[in-house]
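#random but structural
TW: two for the price of one
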Amino acid sequence: MKKGSPNHVYDVIIVGAGISGISAAHHIQKTLPDSEYLLLEGRDNIGGTWDLFRYPGIRSDTDLHTFGFGWQPWQENRAIADGDSIVHYLRTTAERDGIYRHIQFQHRIVAASWSSGLELWTLEVETKARRIQLHTKFLILGTGYYDYNEPLRAEIPGLSNNFRGTIVHPQFWPKDLDYTGKRVVIIGSGATAITLLPNLAKKASHVTMLQRSPTYIMSIDNTTGGSWIHKLLPRTWAFKLDRWMFMWMIIILYNFCRLFPERSRAALEGAVAKQLPKDVPMDPHFRPLYKPWDQRVCFTPNGDFFESLRGGKAHIETAHIKTMSSDSIILDNGKTLEADVIVTATGLKFCLGGHIRITIDDEEINLANRYAWNATMLQDVPNLAFMMGYVNASWTLGVETSSQLVCRLLQHMRKKHYSSVVPRLPKEFPMERRPIWDLDATYVKKAQGFIPRCGNIGPWRGRTNYFVDLWKTRYGSITKDLVFRAGRP
């Protein structure tokens, strides 16, 4: 069928032009060069998260050497980078790889309907001018894990009823917000709050980070690219080696924390104590109640978070909020924090699939109410894959293994002349439900009913680490607990 006609069928349609979508597109055109694919992006620019978020200091929370792509290494001499630099990197990579010409911007998928008779997905797509239909044999959701339209609502007593100042969520930072000389309180203790504090302190009169409980914070030297490796090897080779070294470093750090939690706690807290000003105590502000990596460790490049505390324009409080007044936060320990601006850095609202209404043979399904096959496909959902990253490593490494697995599966289907594949739970084993993200963060706990689950056996288990998963992706079974059908050519 001629391309552009109403009945034209694509081999693959990818949803989302962020890291996930670009990764999937690269692997498809590399391993299946004669496949016809399309990448649909609902917004008007590439980059996903890094184009959406505009709060001061927005930056990666993992190193760009592993956050970048293996086929196009990050080549700046810094590990943690700002959002604009990440968007530039993604755009440049997509253009160099020939992916950019496959992207259709301002194409938002409203609904996706699978027909078992036709063995096709039919997509209802809203464009700037009209609504159209597209058809594809295989659908890949590279939409990320959170809701682009609505933030996670902070459950804070008196915030909406009593407080009369400015309330901001980092996901929707106003372009015209002027906080110069203002008193700012950031509610939260994760990577976003730790990024915001030193950046807001540059213009605000004072910034307070208010947390219910502390998190682990680790300073890292943000300068890379100056080692002997870079002096001896070509630039591209050297940065590829940097990528591998950062992969191993994070895996070693994660496993050391898991195996030796008390030693890890002592090391992390000891490093923090050396950077604090004398008037800021470790307890209760920097002694987390959980073990290292029960939640993610937050990184502060070159210790900028602690530098702001030492500078006197930033402060940290650890307490629960009792209520709000018109211009203050009243804490349960009796303290009052005056505020002109409150930033609710309390996490993101989970949403798999970007609000696409999905039906199978006219029956609407909930993607989150499914077990995940190899953290890539979903129980009883044919010819559909989703991209999900790691919690103990960079997002990109997770979508890289998923992308390669999908391509290997598509190659197998082509070789065997299969037209559809659907994961089925084994009947002989009772499946034990486990979270796909084993993380003790509040926003993850709240999301357990909105994200797929993992099991305890075979390909239904969750991810372990990148190198194990990469081996399984390349050499593990491509047929276990999958049902194939040879139908339409």
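TW: number two ↓
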Amino acid sequence: MAGAPSTSTLDHIVFLSPPGTLEETKRKFVGYGFDVIPGGRHSGGLSENLLIVIKDGVYLELIAFLHPIEHYPEGSEERSRRESNPWAHKLPGWIDYAFLGTSPTISKIINSRAEEEGSGVRYLAEVPGGRETTTGRVLKWLITGPDPTFAVDGAAKNGSLPFFCGDITPREWRVRAVPTERVDHPNGVAEVAHLVVLIPPKDLDEFERQLTSVVGFAPEAGPGDTRTWSLSTTTGSHSPRLILRTPQDGEEEIYVRKRRGCIYKVAFQLARAEGGFLSI
């Protein structure tokens, strides 16, 4: 679609902690050598987060629900909202990733592209979201995600397809509401190198078509069942790779069975003289 906004800018990657354990996850990521900064509580009051901002403009969102589902009385509004949250029943770990929504009509752009290509993916209409920071600033954005009735084998429900976050308030409020030195991490991480999404072999071809409609261009074919898209960042500093592939060993097969596909690993490029990667 000529002149359409980009649908391939990596915005953030989401890591889920068990309910009420956000501080434990903070200690874990500090142990990895990251500088973890305050986030806030999401609108609706069900979850809270912490942030890790990378120099390339991508950030990691460490998120946890305040309470397990059973905390809320059956039949209550809070119980209903908690149970219906798209992340309500996910296992802890990497659970989702977001692209930057640069237009309030990203869903229409993707859906039109998908219809032309016959890929079968469809995104829901944008809905408002937000968060109040620890300093009291109210952030607002628009969210769109894949319609689970059009996804491959539940892929929309497990974070294999990205959602989009488009800012109403300035993105700098959401991401860089702290001094820029907080992006200089003790571990030397400078940028997101790649994220790996695993998918069952039977779903690979169909899911590749759907993801192509979302990203807006076809991937590069790699060895075996590997497909790679080169994404952009808000700083334009480099191109993190989105790698789609099938399991290569028993451990990965178990991972896919438990999660029905999802983000498997995130790798970071180190800025030290010797280079190298940190993979989590």
